[in-house]
Amino acid sequence: MNHDPLVLTFAALLGAIVGSFLNVVILRLPETGASIVFPASHCPKCRHPLSWVENIPLCSYLLLRGKCSHCGVHISLQYPLVELMMAILSAGLVYRFGVSLTTAGFFFFTASLLVIIIIDLNHQIIPDVISLPGIVLGFFFSFFNTLCSWQESLIGLLAGGGILYAIALLYYVLRKQDGMGGGDIKLLAMLGAFLGWQSLPFIIFASSVSGSIIGIVTLAIQRKDSATRIPFGPFLSVSALFYMFFTKEIQSIYKAYLTGTLL
Question: In DSSP terms, which residues pair with 42 in a beta bridge?
């Protein structure tokens, strides 16, 4: 752990800067043939290039009062929220794991999940360009990862993909329709690679419960039929982040439950 306020502040600033780049990735990655590097940042509406003053994470949104300085169109609240969330998560990583290779690996992991959450919410897709390399990187990261060994990572990526594939296949056999996309299967394999097989019971349970609750509430509010599609990727991702930060506490609850000491 690292409690140094200066280090945590630096981590938050770095996270906010990376969060600004993540907004570009979130916007352009779903577009066929779009580059996340070129052209430079611009207003999505009028295409006016943004000056450096308009590119300051969090501050620019406040200074511009949430509007493009050129055409006056409202800027989505998603932009400062992504920057803020990445800043908080970055500081949390340094607080939890200190300045280490583990923090560096989980920094990439966290940024990837944040992109997946927003893209899946907006487009109901989980880009293979994130999840597939993430599976490989998660396994190689296990040789430096303090949360799991390479054996646990290997079992995690194989079991993660296999479990959701089995659930999806069973659902198709029973209902004769797809209930889970292939992107969710690859995502869980990536989560298992980064966090080890021990994380999978919690991730599947927590995401299923939270997803069911949100799904029921959403359907009740919108009054749509049961065919309304609720993306599952965000629930898997949030559950994985929760496990990453509270691994020891969750595993302690596991042990207490298995030994019968949980009150």
Answer: 49
Distance CA(29)–CA(39), nearest Å, equals: 13
Q: What is the pLDDT of residues 175-192, one digit of tens each?
A: 665 555 678 889 999 999
Write out pLDDT tens, residues 85-116.
Answer: 999 999 999 999 999 999 999 999 999 999 99
How would DSSP label each residue in 169-196? HHHHHHHSS--S-HHHHHHHHHHHHHH-
Q: Are 73 and 46 in contact (CB under 8 A)?
A: yes
Q: Is 11 helix (H, G, I), strand (E, B) or coil?
A: helix
With a CB cutoff of 8 Å and minimum separation 6, the contacts of 227 are none
- Please state, as a whole number, how many other Cβ atoms lie within 10 Å of the Cβ of residue 19: 25
pTM of the predicted model as reported, rounded to 2 decimal places:
0.88
Q: Strand, coil or helix: what is 67? A: strand
Q: Which two tokens stand for residue 250?
A: 């969750």
Instruction: Report whether 125 contacts 182 (CB < 8 A).
Output: no
